[in-house]
Write a structure and sequence with these properties.
Blueprint lengths: L4 H11 L2 E6 L5 E4 L2 E2 L16 H22 L6 H14 L1 H6 L1 H7 L3 H8 L4 E2 L2 E2 L1 H15 L1
Antiparallel strand pairs: 1-2, 2-3, 4-5
Length: 147
């Protein structure tokens, strides 16, 4: 499966779109929609520029391939487009390892939609604190999952 335009828009909305390289909250060099530049520790001179929206879209499309494949591998059950998109967004934000260990995945694979959606809401903390932005993202992912 491939992520839909709606799923991509959700990711871009919550990640933000930056046309110039910046340091993310973890202190790593990033550009576009959360695209890590190299190892993130240094900014190569060729990356120190303003990117076009087309370049940012291409970086995102390339980054999403790994998450699309990961969700397909980790959730081998039939998924709706909304479920797939929500799981790709969740994985893009938290990583495929988190999806692999999560109750979201377990409940998805058992066709427990309500359980999977309620499990999404467990992933709203960073640094031990509930972040309003993550609460909003999980609610948007939950709505997409159930669509």
């Amino acid at each position: 499966m491939k992520i839909s335009a709606k799923g991509r828009a959700l990711i871009a909305h919550h990640e933000g779109v930056r046309l110039r390289p910046y340091k993310c909250p973890a202190g790593l060099w990033t550009v576009g929609v959360g695209h890590l530049i190299g190892d993130g520790k240094t900014l190569p001179p060729e990356w120190n520029r303003t990117f076009t929206r087309e370049e940012v879209d291409a970086l995102l499309a390339n980054d999403l391939i790994r998450f699309e494949r990961g969700v397909s591998r980790l959730c081998p059950v039939p998924l709706t487009q909304g479920q797939f998109d929500a799981l790709v967004s969740f994985s893009f934000n938290l990583g495929l390892g988190c999806l692999q260990r999560s109750s979201v995945r377990m409940k998805t694979n058992r066709d427990d939609k309500e359980g999977a959606v309620s499990s999404l809401m467990k992933y709203c903390k960073a640094g031990g604190k509930v972040l309003p932005g993550l609460v909003k993202r999980r609610k948007d992912e939950a709505a997409l999952y159930m669509s």
